Amino acid sequence: MTEQTPEISYLRVPERDDVPEGVTRLWDKSEQAFGFVPNVFRAQAVNGDQFLAWWNYFNLLVNKEGHLTNAERELIAVVVSGLNRCTYCAISHGAALRQFTGDPVTADLVSVNWRQADLAPREAAIAEYAELLTRAPDEVTREDLEPLRDVGMDDHQIMEVGQVIGMFNMTNRVSTALGFIPNEEYHSHAR
Length: 191
What we know:
Layout: H1 21-34, H2 39-44, H3 48-62, H4 70-84, H5 87-101, H6 104-113, H7 121-135, H8 146-150, H9 155-177, H10 185-188
């Protein structure tokens, strides 16, 4: 009996021979670093060059040193993904939030309802702004930035908050539209 690979996308998932060299290099780096290739890397590679362009910006915003901490960026990812009900991102970034905070309970609460998590004032301000910009972007005003400023955030940090919120709203739409399934490894990571 042959083992079938579970479906991870509504679209055909490309093989190594179907993608640009940059994609295979990223797959190989992921395999070395994590012990697996994230399904989102495999599924989005249908359009290899577009995937690499997305990855470069995503990597810059989420994985490189910036104006926010890794935990703050992952908090945004989980709040936005939970609100959008994006299974892939809520689970995969919930795993990252657990890793960066060392707190699996808070990470789980944030993914369902961030208001029930015991967040510090700065984290709560970020989560509240992420919810507003995700649910009602047409209602956002200059005054909505004041709670971020009140917890000590500067313009660079506020800009990064907006960029990360925007990135996850876009990524959630793609992941949900194409039915991306998270890797099993994420479920037990950092627990």
